[in-house]
User: Which sequence fits this backbone?
């Protein structure tokens, strides 16, 4: 057994017996859209469903960052056992407009020394994001679950498995978040499925906890494409796709 594997096993077995404050995951980050979009998030006291005999109040620490990674507001949302809530960060911005950004979520029990749910191990917020276009009334739902990273690991090149049909698509928006405390630079590209050739690309430079949008108007005659990045800022930190179809419908996905 490798030393690092033994260390992981020992740490895991010790942490199971510690209070909840020692078994919290990093915050989960989600894309926020303002302007013509209304963004809302569903939060749930899900530990109470997995440990109903030891159900407890939990709270979410919610923070909103603008596209340049500047903290704009924070709020605590408290949920009773088995409770849930839909929140719109725009409501607690206090009149400040944010067109694009990141919302972070971290779940904690009311009492950090809470022990009776320790058998659940490390808990991580499970957040669904809803985007509603105020003009077209289109609604998108994504569940990307990208965690805040305090350390930057190797950043491999990435190509999506998703196929986009250009016969019905007229515009593509790619929203890329940077879930790290380091600057992130990469090239986002649209590639032909058959040949792998690049039909359009854009360079992005994103500050820590920042967000950028890359827009592509479709003019090529290629039928099927996919998306690639020269590197991702972190695990599961793939771009969020907003594709406008030729009939005006909007499709969203975590690529």
Assistant:
């Amino acid at each position: 057994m490798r030393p690092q594997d033994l260390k992981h096993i020992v740490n895991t077995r010790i942490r199971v017996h510690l209070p909840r404050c020692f078994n919290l995951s990093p915050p989960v980050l989600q894309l926020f859209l303002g302007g013509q979009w209304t963004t809302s998030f569903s939060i749930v006291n899900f530990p109470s469903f997995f440990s109903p005999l030891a159900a407890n109040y939990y709270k979410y620490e919610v923070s909103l960052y603008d596209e340049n990674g500047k903290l704009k507001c924070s709020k605590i949302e408290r949920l009773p056992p088995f409770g849930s809530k839909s929140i719109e960060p725009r409501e607690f911005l206090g009149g400040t407009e944010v067109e694009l950004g990141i919302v972070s979520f971290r779940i904690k029990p009311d009492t950090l020394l809470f022990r009776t749910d320790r058998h659940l191990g490390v808990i991580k917020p499970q957040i669904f994001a809803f985007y509603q276009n105020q003009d077209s009334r289109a609604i998108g739902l994504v569940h990307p679950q990208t965690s805040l990273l305090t350390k930057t690991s190797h950043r491999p090149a990435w190509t999506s498995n998703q196929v986009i049909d250009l016969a019905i698509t007229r515009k593509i928006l790619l929203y890329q978040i940077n879930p790290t405390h380091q600057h992130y630079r990469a090239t986002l590209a649209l590639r032909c499925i058959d040949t792998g050739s690049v039909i359009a690309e854009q360079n992005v430079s994103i500050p820590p906890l920042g967000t950028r949008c890359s827009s592509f108007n479709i003019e090529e005659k290629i039928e099927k494409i996919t998306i690639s990045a020269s590197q991702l800022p972190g695990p599961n930190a793939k771009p969020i796709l907003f594709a406008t179809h030729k009939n005006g419908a909007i499709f969203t996905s975590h690529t």
In short: The longest strand covers residues 100-109. The chain is about 5% helix and 45% strand. The CA atoms of residues 152 and 180 lie 7 Å apart. The chain has a mean pLDDT of 85.
